[in-house]
Fold:
Amino acid sequence: MRHLSAYAAKSIHSKGRKMHEEECEVRTAFQRDRDRILHSKAFRRLAHKTQVFISPEGDHYRTRLTHTLEVAQIARTIARALGYNEDLTEAIALGHDLGHTPFGHTGEHMLQELTQNDFSHNKQSLRVVEALENKGQGLNLTYEVKDGILNHPTSGRPCTLEGEIVQISDKIAYINHDIDDAIRAGVLKYEDLPKDCLENLGFTHSDRINAMIMDVIYQSQHQTMITQSQEKLFYIDKLRSFMFDNVYLNKKAKREEEKAQHIIQELYHYFLRKYDKLPDEMRQRIQEFGVQETVKDYIAGMTDRYAIQKYLDIFVPTVWK
Structure:
């Protein structure tokens, strides 16, 4: 605690947990939260959830798990340099995407449509740690960690500077690793990248990440907010817009999107009609949450390959013996 900035969140001053617990003799409250997230089933499932490219051929494309780890690494670097709470920062980073759907944002948008906009991955991430993990008991995390998870999107307003660090680290991570994956996939060529962005942010993957991180550190020292210089922010936003136009909305990158949407849609309607086919653990939640909410939780928690297999089991005939 003596080594933390005056602006850092201290675990001793945490707003606490919903259910009171005795403090650990060794770990702070935020360390315990980080460990609970790391050992959760939802965290393990991230290894088989899409980041950008659905069912890519190759071992080196990012998954939702590797994205999460890259966000955590960037966020910890910034937190340490500024003297903020690394344990809180890491806990938020590791938990920020726990509620993400199969097939990345394609799955998220489909669930939003099916539920009349009653779904977002950040709210679902909070729901995972509050009500779904640990056999429905939740992880009983501290207020500050849950707030950071809920408010990690750009539109969010985290209550701690550590939450702001994760918010900005998320953007730094996905812009850079998505460029890397897009070039690997042949969706982009290196020479397609805006030259002025490269000149101002760096010509290599590591140089760009380093430039963005160092800018955040320099601009946020002795401040009560986490911020960037206007110059770097201009080129980051330009690069992000470029990625939307050329990758995120690119037909080649999204060629499997309609299939993924179809899988989500058909599974959702099937289990609404036949909720008795839900796994026992999910069926037991219907009385508390209702059928629609339970089906939404079930599908959001699926990995890509589990969703595909479920679809095949339900809708594709097998060989008759």
About this structure: The domain at 27-248 is CATH 1.10.3210.10 (Hypothetical protein af1432). DSSP finds 16 helices and no strands in the chain.
